[in-house]
Amino acid sequence: MGKISRRTMLGATGGLIAGGLLKTQADALTVAPETAGPQVAQADPTKILGAPTSQLGERAPGEQPRRVMGNPAVAASSRTPLEQLRGIITPADLHFERHHAGVPAIDPDRYELLIHGMVDRPMTFSLADLKRFPAESRIGFVECSGNGGAAYSRNAAQDRSPSQIDGLLSTSEWTGVALSTLLREVGLSSDATWLLAEGGDAAVMSRSIPVEKALDDAMIAYGQNGEAIRPAQGYPARLHLPGWEGNAQVKWIRRLEASDRPSMTREETSKYTDPLADGTARQFSLVMDAKSTITFPTFPYQLPDTGWWEIRGLAWSGRGRITRVDITTDGGNTWVPAQLQDTVLSKCATRFRHIWNWDGDPALLMSRATDETGYVQPDLETLMAARGPGTSYHYNSIRPWRVESDGRVFFGPRDGA
Amino acid sequence: MTRRRQSLLAVMTLASFGCTPPDMSNQGGVAAASVAAEWPASFSIGQNASSAQIAAINIDFGPDGEGAPLGSGSVAEGRAVYDTRCSVCHGATGTEGPNDRLVGRIPDDAFPFGEARGTRRTIGNYWPYATTIFDYVNRAMPMTAPGSLTANEVYAVAAYILFLNEIVPENAVMNAQTLPAVVMPAQNRFVRDNREGGAEVR
């Protein structure tokens, strides 16, 4: 028997349940905890005293979403299962991961953030110090700028789910201290234009951040969805840069150095630069342009029946609010506005929905986001024309989802499976 | 007033007569109640950092050479370090993998990476600054023993990788002066982001 929860043990030994049920619960205990929760559904729950309270809640046995894993030896990333989630918030344990040298184990009592360089007073801040400053919260997405690379091809694989394509996207409520508050405390020089942000992981991962962003809406975050940031998201504290590429939002942040030039770290030269068709490479392409994807119906789902189905998805922009999402079910011949879930937040995932009466014919579903700057999510050909077919990062083109007559759904516009 | 303008205003007015806190309703929609209380010039939270504290983790080494540590290393010394510490992941000559390919030039130093997928980016054909080799190796390599190389060893490895890429001669020695002086083939290929929202797709 594997590890069982305290609640399960109490339930199984409490003498409150009939013999037949005991057997059922005993059976459940033999199931690996990874695949089944502790409480077994009852034939008639109104006739059985329910489980007691517990110190830590658990998901329903049949609701066990998992991150989508890459090959750990090659790509240190895991993806949020977008198609299994409902609103805009990503449960913290399902937030995507991208690490450059694993997840460090940092002692919160020894943690310090150093701010130095072009400042009047170089200072260190303990975790308790950071929490003592005036706090703020904001709900915002974090997206890896390499997210969606699988879609940037005219021959993209069709047996791909939203999480396999765009699962390096998560949304959380982040709580922390405004970076501008800390920079005020250390007396940032008016000549400083860049901040080198450095993590305390084994890669000592570092990125140069424009001071303009640092003073605008950057945050040193220590809270995620109401609790401490998870180790995989930067415990005990990380940089949050609303709307900017995830890599720049340095996790496990240990140092900020004010300067008047970028440091030209590996992650802003060799990586996270976007080669263009004109023989240049775009650098410090930090903002995530507007993007959307349908999350239902999508591969590997098969619509079991014709009739009314709600097309659902997520839209987000690093430049502000999503102002509209248009939906097509006929491959782009006609577009209609989707319903946006209130409240639409700036630099945050927005849930959209569109009710659709499927007649059983093949259909090509797409969503197209527009943000408050007037930017309209481009189709693949438009993006390729602007960037070139070999560019990397910032793959925000329209995602087509093809419904076949048998109800199966595939990624991409092509015929056949 | 936007958050940015208010923050800048706060910074500008701080020195003379205190300031107001930033706008907490930074995500807008419906503005939250504004914070009325005046902030003090300083919260007196945090500790002054000593020079020794800063020096202990101030490891970055940028293109201007500022922050470059003392030390030096030759191509020959770098070959020895590379063979024992690097080649298992990057291959005997920096081209074999399995991890990132470090070595390779493109004829006429062309830069075809945006034209089609699949062109391998190496230090020789893509990296714009030689100092990044030191900065990155020093902070993150070898992956299974980060921070274990001496400054001399990192300079030496940089010299060897630059030699393999036919950027420095076999008798080169890298140090705080010579490494920032190396001009990489792709240095002038990098341009600042020109995306700015609005209708145009870039």
Summarize the structure.
By secondary structure, chain A is α+β, with helices and mostly antiparallel strands.
Low-confidence sequence ranges of chain B = 1-20, 29-36
Q: Which secondary-structure class do the elements of chain A indicate?
A: alpha+beta
Class by alpha and beta content of chain B: mainly alpha
* Second-tier CATH architecture of the largest domain in chain A: Alpha-Beta Complex
CATH class of the largest domain in chain A: Alpha Beta
CATH architecture of the largest domain in chain B: Orthogonal Bundle
Q: What key phrases describe this protein's structure?
A:
heterodimer; A: 417 residues; alpha+beta; Sulfite Oxidase, Chain A, domain 2; Immunoglobulin-like; 3 domains; five-stranded mixed beta sheet; five-stranded antiparallel beta sheet; 7 helices; 12% helix; disordered N terminus; B: 202 residues; mainly alpha; Cytochrome Bc1 Complex, Chain D, domain 2; 2 domains; two-stranded antiparallel ribbon; 5% strand; globular
Question: What does this entry look like structurally?
Answer:
The complex is a heterodimer of chains A (417) and B (202). By secondary structure, chain A is of the alpha+beta class. Chain A has helices spanning 6-13, 19-29, 127-132, 162-166, 179-186, 211-216, 380-387, and strands at 68-69, 77-79, 97-98, 112-117, 123-126, 135-143, 169-178, 194-199, 206-210, 219-224, 227-228, 238-240, 253-259, 274-275, 281-283, 291-296, 307-316, 322-328, 336-337, 339-340, 350-358, 363-371, 401-403, 409-411. Chain A folds into 3 domains: 1-64, no CATH class; 92-279, Sulfite Oxidase, Chain A, domain 2, CATH 3.90.420; 291-411, Immunoglobulin-like, CATH 2.60.40. In chain A, strands 5-4-13-8-9 form a 5-stranded mixed beta sheet. The relative contact order of chain A is 0.13. Chain B is mostly helical and 202 residues long. Helices cover 32% and strands 5% of the residues of chain B. The longest helix of chain B has 15 residues, at 3-17. The two termini of chain B are 29 Å apart. In chain B, 34% of the residues are buried. Residues 1-20 and 29-36 of chain B have low confidence and may be disordered. Classes of the chains: A alpha+beta (417), B mainly alpha (202). The interface between A and B is large, with 89 and 72 residues.
